TrEMBL record:
Organism, as annotated: Mariniflexile aquimaris
SMART domains: Aldolase_II (SM01007)
Top-level taxon of the source organism: Bacteria
Protein name: Class II aldolase/adducin family protein
Pfam families (UniProt xref): Aldolase_II
Gene3D superfamilies: Class II aldolase/adducin N-terminal domain
Keywords for this protein: Lyase, Metal-binding
Domain Class II aldolase/adducin N-terminal: 12-188, 232-404
UniProt keyword annotation of DNA-binding present: no
InterPro entries: Aldolase_class_II_sugar_metab, Aldolase_II/adducin_N, Aldolase_II/adducin_N_sf
Length: 429
């Protein structure tokens, strides 16, 4: 699938992405800056000391190639290192700098997060550089950062400062930023309940090698009204998942059964934040919609639908607190509050690679549970209506979060067997 051409003006791209970063709690009102260099060599950049929570396109500054500044504000005080990155790396067309809490945690202990904590992050982030501390806004800081980018890095941990990332466009930079912060959060949360385990390079390469278009193409595709309605539901839930921090732009698969064993599923290679109805892929009679690449996980969604007729929707995603359990081999006991047990009962985990087509997948496919964790990869949530499945995901993530946060207070005391039996009688019979 060819990459979408982004015809949004740089001003609009920047305001959209800074809004996402702010709303997700990955920068403060005054912190962080974003820039784009256009084909003329002009740099569009966020302004200095303007509220990131209400930034408008008219607030974005243009620094022309000749140094002329156009706009009603001053450009970001960190503009010098943005400029230095573009000069050092002509392939970089957008830069994001921010102070997201988890990456700042690594910054202040002077460590680099290991992106082999989850399957796709190494591919999305690439190797991570490290820039020693220099005075913010100084030419010296620009030199230090540019030197790291010259080594080929696109993601840098800034000592006692935060992070800076580059990309071939702003979407590429944001995916890298979001994935790296997710890795940092997962490692931090996992470290509170156990010891994080990491994938080998060979395992991450195996994930990337999975074929995305092995199904034959349909010759003709029809789009009746009920099919289009399901596309809209999928897009709505995917964007809501991103907004709620339950999915990141570079990873996450959502599907809905359409009729019989035919279904609709999200594509690969499309940022989840930007998913549109036409991006969703129809799978019918074992064939895929022509010209589209469905998720790598399409085959396992197909097998779940075939073997579990009561399941009509599936969400396969990464959320940080659930993945804290998924990277530490810790058991997630959902006997926390009545709602969690009623909805989920038990959440088991399967080994990494169980979700690959050539391996034994019976633990995932046969008698598929409401929630299942794949170690160092994802969580699979299943249900009837898609909104119900999303609710199960939220409940599972909230349960995991409560346990992680409560760990510092003492050992969890679960609902006992007698109380569980009362719940079973009242709500499940």
């Amino acid at each position: 699938m060819s990459k979408k051409i982004n015809l949004e003006h740089p001003r609009d791209q920047i305001t959209k992405i800074i809004s996402r970063i702010y709303q997700r709690g990955m920068t403060t009102t005054s912190g962080g800056n974003i820039s784009i260099i256009d084909e003329q060599g002009d740099i569009w950049v966020t302004p200095s000391a303007i509220d990131k929570g209400s930034l408008r396109a008219s607030d974005i500054i243009c620094v022309k190639k000749d140094g002329t500044i156009i706009g009603k504000h001053k450009p970001s005080s960190e503009f010098p290192f943005h400029k230095a990155i573009y000069e050092a790396r002509p392939d970089i067309k957008s830069v994001i700098h921010a102070h997201p809490p988890a990456l700042v945690s690594f910054s202040i202990v002077r460590q680099i997060p290991n992106t082999n904590i989850i399957s796709q992050a190494k591919h999305v982030c690439g190797p991570i550089g490290y820039a020693e501390y220099r005075l913010p806004g100084s030419e010296d800081l620009g030199d230090v950062i540019a030197d790291e980018f010259k080594k080929g890095y696109k993601a840098i941990i800034m000592e006692n400062h935060g992070t800076v990332l580059g990309g071939s466009d702003l979407t590429d930079a944001f995916e890298r930023f979001e994935a790296l912060e997710f890795c940092a959060r997962t490692i931090l949360y996992g470290s509170q309940i156990g010891t994080p385990n990491y994938l080998t390079d060979a395992q991450t390469e195996e994930f990337e090698a999975q074929a995305t278009s092995v199904l034959p193409e349909m010759k003709v595709t029809e789009y009746p009204s009920d099919e289009v309605e399901k596309r809209a539901e999928i897009c709505k839930i995917v964007k809501r998942s991103c907004q709620q921090g339950l999915m990141i732009g570079s990873y996450g698969t959502v599907s809905m059964r359409w009729k019989d064993n035919d279904f609709l599923i999200t594509p690969t290679g499309i940022n989840r934040w930007d998913l549109e109805l036409d991006d969703v892929v129809q799978i019918k009679d074992g064939h895929r919609e022509a010209g589209k690449k469905p998720s790598r996980a399409t085959w396992i969604h197909q097998e779940i639908y075939k073997n579990n007729p009561k399941i009509n929707s599936i969400i396969m995603t990464q959320s940080p607190y659930l993945m804290a359990f998924g990277v530490t081999n810790s058991y997630l006991n959902v006997r926390t509050i009545p709602e969690s047990w009623i909805f989920l009962q038990d959440i088991h985990a399967v080994k990494y690679g169980t979700h690959f087509k050539h391996n034994n997948n019976s633990d995932i496919v046969e008698n598929c549970a409401t929630a299942l964790i794949i170690e160092n990869d994802s969580v699979i949530i299943t249900g009837d209506k898609l909104l119900q499945t999303f609710d199960y995901l939220e409940v599972a993530e909230f349960s995991a979060k409560s346990i992680v946060l409560g760990h510092s207070l003492g050992e969890m005391v679960p609902i006992n067997d007698e109380q569980v039996e009362d719940l079973r009688i009242k709500f499940l019979t």
